Amino acid sequence: MRLVRPLLFSLLLVLPALAAAETAVPSAASLVKQAIEHWRDVSSYSVFDMTIHRPDWHRTMRMRIWTQGLKNSLVRVISPPKDAGNATLMRNDEMWSFTPKINRVIKIPSSMMHQSWMGSDFSNNDVSRSDDIIDQYDHTLLKTEQVDGHTVYTVQSVPHEDAPVVWGREVLRIRDDFVVLEHDFYDQEGKLVKRMVSSDIREMGGKMIAAVERMGQVDKPGEWTEIRVIEAHYGIDVPPTTFTLSNLRNPRS
Amino acid sequence: MTLRLAWRNLWRNPRRSWLTAAAIAFSATLLIFSITLQLGSYDMMIDNSLRVFSGQLQVQHAGYQDKPRLRSDIPHATALAARIRKATGAAVAVRAQGFALASSRERSYGVMVVGVQPGFEGKVSTIPGTVREGRYLKSNDAPEAVIGQALARNLKLKLGDELTLLGSGRDGSVAANVVKVVGLFDSGTSELDRGFVEIPLGTFQETFGMGDAAHAIVLRGADLAQAEALAGKVRALLPAGEKLTVLNWPQLVPGLQQLIQADKFNGWFIYGALILVVTLSITNTFLMAVLERTREFGILLALGMTPMRIGRLVLLESLLLILVGLAIGIFVGGLLTAWFSYHGFSYPGMDEFAKQFNFPSQVYPQVSALAILLGPSGILLFTMVAALYPALRIRRLQPVEAMNAL
After folding, report:
1. pLDDT-based confidence at B406, cuts 50/70/90?
2. Which of B61, B103, B154, B174 to mutate to test the interface with A (most CBs of A within 10 A)?
3. Which residues of A touch B180 (CB under 8 A)?
4. For residues A224 and A53, what is the distance between their CA atoms, to the nearest angstrom?
């Protein structure tokens, strides 16, 4: 008891939401918020491979991504040469695409946000509005379990009536160190449509992250997109000019 | 003997018989004309909607129709199309299709991009003929596009402006191109006018990394009724080993058939009501004819004729009367249908509409045994059931009472 109390006390300071809770189980909303914040961090720079797999073909692109806060990110394709230079800028829920081949910046209209991002199983919304789940959803804790020495929380998140979301609900499995293990997307009829599964959880850039995330269509097992993190740095200085249209068109770094 | 008697009885009151026969003839004519015209309108409706874009038949990669993916393609499509064109003599055009984001300087919309063969597309689709401003595509690999007027308005584009297309190529890489808008069309179908960009096939194949592959070989024969035979010929020309399939129009435009089914049901309801009205008025005549002859039947019964036989006589009289009426009706209705099927029938205002959207301006009633005989058969069936009632009444007659009846 002596040990637990100070720990509890400090937790209460960090998570005001916890104040309402009587036990040490964090609230569902704070779990989701922390998981997203853990994933995004204050800022980050990482390099990753994205593999799009289909029954009859697959291809891998290597990309770099810079992020700042929950709203700003910039993705640039490094290879293969055919795609190199293609870039996507996400800022305040808006999205722009740059294609060197035609040397044009194109704003992605909101009507296209449910479409696939660069041919993958991630939609434009998945990559640009991933923080919507924090403030546009209601969360309930469904289950708490012990897996491999970790507490794993299963949270159901239901979007608000007016949220610009196609999903009926989402279910996340969050580990106690805020690594998201699984993220399920259900449609309005309650049918499981897409599932993202994390694996290869290890320390990178000074914290535990899932190095591999695979998003797949549930009814088509042969179709999935995998993201494999090659290197990651968190809490670094990213110049604010990174997330501008002119930088999207004429990369400075 | 009964037949001769019935025939003679029929003409005991020629005016009434002729009037009844005329009512039957008139309703038969009306039914024949409206049914053949309705079926003809369906033919036109099908033909017109297939004319716009889908064609009568399409060769596609198996599964493309349900799930249009760039990779579900027809290899060496242009060469295959040329072979089909040569062997069948039908109008044949190759298309490649994909989704892309179309952007002007100010706005972006998701659109269907169609790569077409400029020289052949006009033979299978009305779109080239509905270009209102500018011109249709000319060369097979120029960076140019024609788009719907509605899309141009939405994108705030004018003739000569640049349109940026951004999508995914066949190999998953980024597909992008800038094309010049050279023409604006108004096909009359709002989905096409709002969401369609046509570019030359070569430009499409280069932009989306398709090589010499495409997604549809569209066919249009002289007559929709011959489409199945044409499909058979095309099937024989498809290279073995490729997963290619020939789709007919109900597979290409499934909604159309449902629409027609619904409309047909509506039509049958109205025809049913019409037949019922005719039947009721004719029943009245039949009943009168029997009632006023109660004395006569009484005498026949007293002479030893069985009620069965008298019933048969009366039924036969009705049948003869109906047949006379129907014969006249079928003759007149058939003539009317034949005339219009030769010269065409046009609703007021249809001409203008047809010209605007590059459609034929006449409806041709469908001349077929089924279309012509359907209405008259309905009348025959209903009126014969109606004629049973007076005939059955005779069985209740008592000879003495009947003879004394007024």
Report:
1. low
2. B174
3. none
4. 5
- The ipTM (two decimal places) reads 0.72
Helix axes B369-393, B307-343, angle to 10 degrees: 160
**Per the confidence metrics, is the pTM higher than 0.80?**
no
Q: Which residue, B203, B220, B237, sits at the end of a domain?
A: B220
DSSP B67: S
Q: Does the pLDDT at position A115 exceed 90?
A: no
Report residue B136: phi and psi, to 5°. -85, 175
CB A141 within 8 Å of CB A158:
no
B203 reaches A (C-beta below 8 A):
no
Check B178 against A102: CB less than 8 A apart: yes
Asked if B20 and B386 count as a contact pair (C-beta separation under 8 A), the reply is no
Average pLDDT over residues A16-30: 62
What does CATH list as the number for A4-249?
2.50.20.10
Count of domains for chain B: 2
Which residues, 6+ apart, have CB-to-CB distance to B170 below 8 Å? B70, B71, B73, B208, B209, B210, B211, B213
Looking at the fold, whether B71 and B41 belong to one and the same domain comes out as no
B167, B38: one domain = no
Give the rounded distance of the alpha carbon of B42 from its chain centre.
2
| Other beta carbons less than 10 A from residue B382's beta carbon | 19
- Structural domain contains residue B11: yes
For A60, the closest chain B residue by CA position comes to B172
Domain residues for the domain of B181 are 57-220
- Residue B162 within a domain: yes
